[in-house]
């Protein structure tokens, strides 16, 4: 996943095999929850571009996963409008998406980005349990 994010950051096209592998991995909740940590890490901008690209390429239900990750990424850096659009599209693709519903509810109720960003802690915890090293946290802001 990290190599794929780096390829996306370099604006190199992803192969169909890479896209399929990512789509499949996003359906595993522990993988998806771990990937939430990347929204607050040193590669956050790169993986946000990856989620954006995947949200355009993938059909439902995989598209919903990419859109939720895009929405979370935008939300934690303070871009509420993009977060809202991404989460709305995710829920259109999969109305019963639990994380999408949770994030949309938080956004609509005015929860601050730093509060919702604590969800990334779960990703870091899961990565640690699995022996996966993630990029260190980095503060990002909208704009």
Task: Describe what this molecule looks like in 3D.
- It is built from 9 helices and no strands.
- By secondary structure, it is mainly α.
- The chain is globular, with a radius of gyration of 14 Å.
- The protein has helices at 2-9, 16-26, 29-35, 44-57, 62-76, 80-93, 98-108, 113-116, 119-130.
- The relative contact order is 0.16.
- Helix 5 (62-76) runs antiparallel to helix 6 (80-93) and helix 6 runs antiparallel to helix 7.
- The protein starts with a helix and ends in a 13-residue tail after the last helix.
- It has one domain.
- Helix content is 67%, strand content 0%.
- InterPro entries: DUF4192.
- It holds the Pfam family DUF4192.
State the separation between the terminal residues, measured CA to CA: 26 Å
Low-confidence stretches: none
Count of all domains? 1
Radius of gyration: 14 Å
Number of strands: 0
Helix content: 55-70%
Number of alpha- plus pi-helical segments: 9
Estimate the global geometry from the Cα principal axes: globular
Strand fraction: under 5%
Structural class: mainly alpha
Mean pLDDT: 89
Q: Could you state the order of secondary-structure elements as H and E?
A: HHHHHHHHH
* Largest beta-sheet characterization: none
What order do the helices and strands come in, and which of them pair?
Layout: H1 2-9, H2 16-26, H3 29-35, H4 44-57, H5 62-76, H6 80-93, H7 98-108, H8 113-116, H9 119-130
List key phrases describing it.
single chain, 143 residues, mainly alpha, 9 helices
Short description:
The chain is mainly alpha-helical.
């Amino acid at each position: 996943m990290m190599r794929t994010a780096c390829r996306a950051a370099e604006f190199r096209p992803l192969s169909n095999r890479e896209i399929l592998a990512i789509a499949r991995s996003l359906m595993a909740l522990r993988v998806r929850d771990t990937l939430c940590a990347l929204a607050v890490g040193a590669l956050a901008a790169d993986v946000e571009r990856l989620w954006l690209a995947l949200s355009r390429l993938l059909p439902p239900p995989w598209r919903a996963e990419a859109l939720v990750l895009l929405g979370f990424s935008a939300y934690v850096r303070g871009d509420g409008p993009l977060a809202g659009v991404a989460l709305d599209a995710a829920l259109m693709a999969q109305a019963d998406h639990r994380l999408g519903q949770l994030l949309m509810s938080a956004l609509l109720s005015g929860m601050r980005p730093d509060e919702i960003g604590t969800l990334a802690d779960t990703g870091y915890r899961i990565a640690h349990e699995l022996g996966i090293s993630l990029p260190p946290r980095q503060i990002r802001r909208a704009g």
